[in-house]
C-alpha cells in the first residue's frame, strides 16, 4: 500500500499520480518507452562532459594556451543548453508516460493540474493522431486518509484507454 499524502496539496497529488502511471500501464500490458528520458540524459551528460573538459583544460594548461579551446567549448555548451531548454519546454513538456500497447500502438500521456483545482488533467495521445483529454477528480482515486486506491486508478485508466481506442476506430 502506498503512503498517505495530503490530498489538498497539488504537488503531492501530481507526484503520486505521475509515479503510479507506469505501474498501472504495466498492469495493462503496456511496455514503457524511455526515448525522451534517454535523450534528456544524453544532453545533460554531454553538457557535464563539456564542463569537465573545460575544467581540466584550465587545470592542466596555461590560460593563453587554451583560450581558443575554451571559447569553442563555451559555444558548444551554450548550444547544448539552448537545445536542452527547447527539448524540455517544447518536446517533452509534461509528458509523464510513453509506451506501446500490446497491439503496438504508441501511447503518450501528459498531465497537469489547473491552479488550486484538485482535478488531474490527463491528455492521452494514440499514434500521434488521436487525442483524448479528461479530468480525474482526486477524490475518485484517493480515500479520506490520503491513500491512493490503485485499483480505482487502474479501472479509470482502463476506461479512458477504451475511449481512446474507440475514438481511433471512428
Automatic annotation (TrEMBL):
The keyword Protease does not apply. One of its GO terms (cellular component) is signal peptidase complex. Coiled coil: none annotated. The chain crosses the membrane at residues 37-57, 69-87. It is a multi-pass membrane protein. GO terms for biological process: protein targeting to ER; signal peptide processing. Keywords: Endoplasmic reticulum, Membrane, Transmembrane, Transmembrane helix. It comes from the Eukaryota. It is found in: Endoplasmic reticulum membrane. Belongs to the SPCS2 family. Component of the signal peptidase complex (SPC) which catalyzes the cleavage of N-terminal signal sequences from nascent proteins as they are translocated into the lumen of the endoplasmic reticulum. Enhances the enzymatic activity of SPC and facilitates the interactions between different components of the translocation site. PANTHER family: MICROSOMAL SIGNAL PEPTIDASE 25 KDA SUBUNIT, SIGNAL PEPTIDASE COMPLEX SUBUNIT 2. This is Signal peptidase complex subunit 2. The lineage of its organism: Eukaryota, Fungi, Dikarya, Ascomycota, Saccharomycotina. The gene is TDEL0D01110.
Amino acid at each position: 500500500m502506498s503512503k498517505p499524502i495530503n490530498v489538498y496539496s497539488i504537488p503531492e497529488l501530481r507526484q503520486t499520480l505521475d509515479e503510479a502511471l507506469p505501474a498501472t500501464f504495466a498492469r495493462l500490458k503496456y511496455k514503457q518507452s524511455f526515448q525522451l528520458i534517454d535523450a534528456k540524459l544524453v544532453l545533460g551528460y554531454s553538457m557535464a562532459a563539456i564542463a569537465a573538459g573545460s575544467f581540466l583544460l584550465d587545470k592542466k594548461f596555461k590560460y593563453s594556451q587554451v583560450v581558443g579551446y575554451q571559447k569553442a567549448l563555451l559555444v558548444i555548451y551554450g548550444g547544448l543548453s539552448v537545445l536542452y531548454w527547447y527539448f524540455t519546454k517544447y518536446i517533452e513538456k509534461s509528458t509523464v508516460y510513453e509506451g506501446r500497447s500490446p497491439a503496438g500502438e504508441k501511447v503518450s500521456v501528459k498531465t497537469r493540474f489547473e491552479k488550486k483545482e484538485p482535478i488531474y488533467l490527463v491528455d492521452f495521445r494514440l499514434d500521434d493522431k488521436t487525442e483524448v483529454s479528461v479530468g480525474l477528480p482526486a477524490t475518485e482515486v484517493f480515500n479520506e486518509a490520503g491513500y491512493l486506491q490503485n485499483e480505482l486508478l487502474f479501472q479509470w485508466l482502463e476506461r479512458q484507454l477504451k475511449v481512446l481506442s474507440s475514438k481511433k476506430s471512428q
